[in-house]
């Protein structure tokens, strides 16, 4: 009965506007004396009459949709019993959804509707006819289909190609026979291009200036960072559309590497690069040094030189030419991009400004910052914390050394890379005199490709994998007090020379990861994420693999080396302890003192959602023990009112360990906070949207890590993914209650200051002591 009623309501909602608009047109004709018109007048006026009826139909549909959507919005999740689909009043939201989708089906079959939808004057009218609201920036060209305009937020200057479909919902059937309706907003930033015949699923978030290639399929809840090009089915990263992850990261530096003119490839440049790549003293690199006179300048040395050239100058050497680099003039010619090697791209200058705070390096473009580091450290000795790094791999891993060395120097580590024998993983793990055994206090790294396993059949493949896992377990168990063994997650298949069942590959990768996660003394290195981020088509190097067992592109080696430095840093440096955060246009949109609590942008939909998601990331860190402090130029009572009562706030007053809401300089407030919390200023991370405030903080309190927030609030959360400052934070019972403990300590200090004697203070605390025998939980 309820199903019949639901169908009747949906059919009635679809047909009623037709009846009403036809009645209005008939009334107008009747008043105009249409009955006396001859047939040829009716023929001439018929297109106009149809447009008049269609306009009235669209306007009435829009009014009905708006009323329905306001009273009964589309549900985010609803499971419907086919026998009783409208069990409660809350279920009426599905009636709105059904009415909208059925009306869209009707509109697509009416003449001229598609043409009207492409005109700026009628587009919103057509979309509102089957949607409660429309959120499209101007000027935008929408040639595709928006199944849920009310759930699709489109920025300015966006192009949606013909044949593309953007959907904010999905429908599936559960095993118990219930029909499940799901919906999630789709966010498309400014200046985005979606190629024709693409499919964008619900919950997708596409950053500014991104490009989705034609025919691509974006899965549900996919997140495309700003300025990236994605393509395929499912879509994966293809390349960066623009250089630099953060425009501000290169503008805050006081330690800049000057721009260089086109290089001539001088002998001095070649000598410094060869000395660094082969780890030779500079005075030993003479003019007659070559592959024929230097034992270190062997085939692996040539690979190391080619990797150093890419890191320093951005010149990628063709694999077939790597082994022709035999003299210093050869190196100079490669640097200049002439003569010897067929390079992928011309030499690039090191014009990137390095930040004074090394913790901001991860926010910058990896390639340009690596070149700048190479230029900065070129020919200069380095003294820092020496850490030997031994790498055992199933492939040639020597190209990792240059980026490991450079980024290690940037963070104060002297990382001395050594490499075990080619594809000698088990021997290195179990040998009593192996490189791993001799490096108990350093960092040992194991890297394996799925292509290097025995993939003839499933049994052999898992026997091979389990043999390596057993050796890893034995090594970790025999080194309980040493540094953990770093083991890379198995990356996806990129080799053109390996054919295997995709389901077998995924089973092996999942088995490898789950087994390693259960081993004590083993830490995972996210090798797989690096390959996936760069993209399968850009990660492999067929000529490199065929000629020298170098199966990955220079970009993969560079990124993997940087990720290894990140892991080492997390194990040797403590994470940041305090986040000091601004309010206006940081925790919420708008200025509280101007628009009031009801006027700020903050909520689960629309522009305020970016700020809510940013607060969720802060809340997650707070639950892991990072302290949160509010530093804002506002009235404290108004700010506390927002924290305590605004429905869009994720953070509440109980989450904040200290408040500095006043009109003082924020640098003074940070110094005061450090004294109150008894922490060093280097433990603080500062978030503020105002560049002038950030500059004042950097100048007056240089110890504080001042984070340059992107211009778009939708990109705020991406900063957390790139920062290394919070690596190593963990969620324990003590971490979750740390904010409360600090608040209690602050209250005790205040109480001590108000009491005239220590005895009175202790009496006010009402201390109670319990004495018992120690148990296992102690």
Question: What would you say about this model in short?
Answer:
The chain is an alpha/beta fold and 778 residues long. α14 (502-517) links the parallel β24 (485-488) and β25. Mean pLDDT is 81; it is low at 242-265 and 341-350.
Mean of pLDDT: 81
Q: Calculate the terminal CA-CA distance, rounded to whole Å.
A: 62 Å
**Strand line-up in the sheet with most strands:** 3-6-11-14-17-18
Number of helices: 27
Fraction of residues in helix: 40-55%
Give the tally of β-strands.
30
Give an account of the 3D structure:
The protein is α/β, with parallel strands linked by helices and 778 residues long. It contains 27 helices and 30 strands. The strands form seven sheets. Strands 3-6-11-14-17-18 form a six-stranded mixed β-sheet. A five-stranded parallel β-sheet has the order 2-5-10-13-16, with no helix packed on it. Strands 22-21-23-24-25 form a five-stranded parallel β-sheet, sandwiched between helices. Strand 8 (169-173) and strand 9 form a beta hairpin. Helix 1 (2-31) crosses helix 2 and helix 6 (267-278) crosses helix 7 (299-313). The longest helix has 33 residues, at 39-71. The radius of gyration is 32 Å and the shape is globular. The protein starts with a helix and ends in a 13-residue tail after the last helix.
